[in-house]
């Protein structure tokens, strides 16, 4: 069976494991894009550390979950977002103004919407992340 979107499958696995209260999840197959997205998620505290297990095929990743992820998912179709329209996309995709991130692929790499604004880089929207509101107030 052919996987059409490896990143969407990985994020769905993380969502399902979070909902069931698991502390770890195994993601396979793994790509470089998936690893970079996990790095952005880890930087913002949505997931714990992760370990890449390199078997000579597509690879696997074991992700430690923190219980702070409310929802994450791939934005499909991927929209071109200019810097001047970033505020509009932020209002449409995120549940609240301070909670959550939109992840973009730009010419400068994969980054969240705040970093894209600082670096003055637009790009394609790939993912949206939101934290649990209860944990955000702590």
TrEMBL record:
GO BP terms, alphabetized: translation
Listed GO CC annotations: ribonucleoprotein complex; ribosome
Keyword Plastid: no
GO molecular function: structural constituent of ribosome
Coiled-coil regions listed: none
Keywords, ordered alphabetically: Ribonucleoprotein, Ribosomal protein
Family: Belongs to the universal ribosomal protein uS8 family.
Protein name, as recorded: Small ribosomal subunit protein uS8
Species for this entry: Vombatus ursinus
């Amino acid at each position: 069976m052919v996987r059409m979107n490896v990143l969407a499958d990985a994020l769905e696995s993380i969502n399902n494991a979070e909902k069931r209260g698991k502390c770890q999840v195994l993601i396979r197959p793994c790509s470089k894009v998936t690893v970079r997205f996990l790095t952005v998620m880890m930087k913002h505290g949505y997931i714990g550390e992760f370990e890449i297990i390199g078997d000579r095929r597509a690879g696997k990743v074991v992700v430690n979950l923190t219980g702070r992820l409310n929802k994450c998912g791939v934005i499909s179709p991927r929209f071109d977002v200019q810097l001047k329209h970033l505020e509009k996309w932020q209002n449409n995709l995120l549940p609240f103004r301070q909670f959550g991130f939109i992840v973009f692929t730009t010419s400068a790499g994969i980054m969240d919407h705040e970093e894209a604004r600082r670096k003055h880089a637009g790009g394609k929207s790939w993912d949206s992340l939101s934290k649990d509101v209860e944990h955000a107030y702590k």
